[in-house]
Design goal:
Blueprint: H1 22-32
């Protein structure tokens, strides 16, 4: 069964995401110097993506 043509999206998800995945948040915290070695990846602080 195929999708109706009116339900298809054009271009896909090309918008800017405002939510980071866990590994992206850890990477950003490391760059900012806020990540402590051996810290738990659970319960991370809220992190805004770089502008």
């Amino acid at each position: 069964m195929s999708k109706h043509s009116s339900l298809k999206t054009s271009g896909g998800a090309s918008g800017k995401r405002s939510v980071l995945k866990r590994f992206e948040r850890i990477k950003l915290l490391k760059q900012r110097g806020q990540w402590k070695k051996g810290a738990s990846p659970i319960g991370l602080p809220k992190t805004k993506p770089e502008a």
